[in-house]
Every structure is written in structure tokens, then in C-alpha cells.
Amino acid sequence: MADPRFFTRRGPFTLEGLASSAGARVATGTDPNLEIVDVAPLDAATGHDISFLDNPKYLPALAATKAGACILSEKHVPRAPAGLALLVAPAPYVAYARIAQLFYPPSRPRPGVAPSAAVDASAKLGKDVAIQAGAVIEAGSEIGDRTIIGANAVIGAGVVIGADCRIGAGVVLSHCLIGQRNTIHPGSCIGQDGFGVALDPKGYVKVPQLGRVIIGDDCEIGANVMIDRGAGPDTVIGSSCWIDNLVQIGHNVRLGKGCVVVALAGISGSTQLGDYVVVGGQVGIAGHLKIGSGAQIAAQSGVMRDVPPGMKMGGAPALPVREWHRQTVAIAKLAAKTKDEAGQ
Fold first, then answer.
1. Nearest to 247 by CA among 126, 235, 103
2. What is the CATH number of the domain that holds 90?
3. C-alpha span between 24 and 92 (Å, rounded)
4. Residue 77 — pLDDT band, cuts 50, 70, 90?
5. Measured between alpha carbons, how far is 312 from 134 in angstroms, rounded to an integer?
6. Under the phi-then-psi rule, with left for phi > 0, alpha for psi from -120 to 50, and beta for the rest, what region is 284?
């Protein structure tokens, strides 16, 4: 059970209601009117909880579970213990996510401006906006309806934020236009100078960064993410992108829609990612490259050349994943051979 000090639970819900919301069906022999009061993992669930099975690695946990109900795929129905109520879904984890959202919808603070917040008189605040303690809203900025600005966040002059956004504590936004229904987690900085310097025998010369950051709708941006504004062209984050914690995105970078960038990745300036590109953790991508739509980059890879659409890459420097695996096997064999020869 989630800690009630931090999470407020709704419910109970019937299995029929949960199935309808989750795109699942109640299995034959399961009581559709069975009431469920919470979600829980297979190994911790009680008779009033619903759990899920997605990875077959957890089939032993399914056999031993004390859950009242479980979400699983059709192929795993025969593996369920007798008496366990079942919801059958083509994608059990997705169904579980929808059900968990029903039990634990995001909490919302009361609308209003905290007394310690500083809001410039020229800023425009939409309906039911919540501005929390210590936040700063600078001149000419616009905050959309029902958007939440967290404690000590700084919304710079001229920044535009759409409706239904959640801006976390300590976030700093400048030189950016942000769409609707975006979540930006605590500590992220968006719109600061890009890393622009010109080399001169007498020293470095700063290049003014005159672009913006444009973020579409329905994006999730993790904690302590840094997105630099463009040098002239804009830095663009397409709609429905998911960016994990501690990601660095350089100036003029363009992400298509639905991209996923995992923690500690860095994307250098002027690189373009197509739609639905997946970048693994700790990946480094050099500047001025084109990563085609649907490409996937394995964790800890170093990308130094363009990647065709749909290609899976891995290694440093990154190679097509099959070639990378062959090289890894060959190096392991060579190391083993060298060890054997040294022992003779």
C-alpha cells in the first residue's frame, strides 16, 4: 500500500469498472462485481488488491500471490492459481498503469498565489493557477489555466506556459514557449545560454544565443534536466517526448514527437532526432548529426555519425547493434585466448 502521508487513494472500484477504464476484459469465471481497494506488487498484494504480470520472469510470484485479482495476457491465463480473479489485457503493464491512475490521480494544490510569491504586475495568470511559496513570475510571462508553479520556481520574462502544466520546485525557465499538459520536474533549467564560443588567438569570444526553446504538448521532463536555448534557430522538443533525469540537450537540437531520452544522456548542439527515437542511459551524441525516426541507441553508446531511420545502434563509437555484438564476442574470445597463451 502506498504511504497515505504522500498519496491519496480513491476507490474502491469493481473489476468491471477497472476493466472498462484499462482496455481489458473480465476473464470467464471472474466476478465482475468484485471490489478492489488498491494496487500492489504480486508478492505484497492482499485479497483486496489488484496486481499485474507482464514479464514471465515473475510467473513464480504469480503462482504464490495472495492478490485478489491480477492483470495478465491471454497466454498467461492458464498459469494463474485457482481462485484468482483475472483481467485479461493485450498489454498488462499499460492496463495496470491506467488502473493505478484511477486509484492515485495526481494531487492538485489549491488555486491561488502564495503570499511569499513574487508576481510581476504585467504577468498574465490563467484561471485556477496555483503559484506556490517563493516562486517568481517575471514581467510579460503568461501562465495557462490550471497550471501549477512549484515553490521557488523562476519563470523568466516573456516565458509562455500553456494550460494544465506542472512546473516543479526550483525549476528555472527563460526564453521558452511551453505547450499544454507538460510536467517539468524539480531543479530543471530550460532556456539558458547554449554553449556557444568562437575561438580567437586572444581568447574565447562568447557567441550570443538568440534563439528560444519550444516545447510541444504532453511532455514529461525529469529532474535536473538542462535544455539550452538556440543560438539563432530554436531548440525544439516535440510533443509527447519523455526526458529522464539529468539529461543535457544542447542549443539548436530538435527532437521529433514521442522521443525518449534516458538519464545522463547528452545531445550536442544542432543534432536532430526524428520521431520516436529512443536514446539509452549515458549515451553521448555528437553535434550536427541526424538520427532517423524510430532509431534506438543502446545505453552508454557514443554516436559520432548519422543514424538511419529504424536502426538499432550500440557501442562507442556506435555501430549497428549486430555488428557491435559480434565485435564484443570477438574481443571476449581474443581476451580468453591471450589469457590461455599467457598461462602456458
1. 235
2. 3.40.1390.10
3. 8
4. very high
5. 45
6. beta
Listed residues 103, 118, 143: the one ending a domain: 103
Q: What is the arithmetic mean of pLDDT over 129-150?
A: 98
Using the predicted structure, report yes or no on whether residue 339 has a pLDDT greater than 80: no
Domain-located, residue 238: yes
251 tagged catalytic: yes
> What confidence tier does 1 reach under pLDDT thresholds 50, 70, 90?
confident
Distances (CA, A) of 174 to 31, 193, 253: 54, 10, 17
Residue type for 186, please?
Answer: P
Nearest to 159 by CA among 208, 196, 124: 124
Mean pLDDT for the stretch of residues 8-24: 97
3-state secondary structure the chain: CCCCCCCCCCCCEEHHHHHHHHCCEECCCCCCCCEECEECCCCCCCCCEEEECCCHHHHHHHHHCCCCEEEECHHHHHHCCCCCEEEECCCHHHHHHHHHHHHCCCCCCCCEECCCCEECCCCEECCCCEECCCCEECCCCEECCCCEECCCCEECCCCEECCCCEECCCCEECCEEECCCCEECCCCEECCCCCCEEEECCEEEECCCCCCEEECCCCEECCCCEECCCCCCCEEECCCCEECCCCEECCCCEECCCCEECCCCEECCCCEECCCCEECCCCEECCCCEECCCCEECCCCEECCCECCCCEEECCCCEEHHHHHHHHHHHHHHHHHHHHHHHC
Given the residues 175, 185, 251, 325, the one annotated as active site = 251
CA distances from 206 to 193, 252, 288 (A): 10, 16, 20
- CATH code assigned at 281: 2.160.10.10
Q: State the residue range of the domain holding 277.
A: 174-322
The answer, yes or no, to whether the previous bond of 201 is cis (omega within 30 of 0) is no
Handedness of CA 173, 176, 178, 182 (dihedral sign): negative
Looking at the 3D structure of the chain, how many domains does it have?
Answer: 2
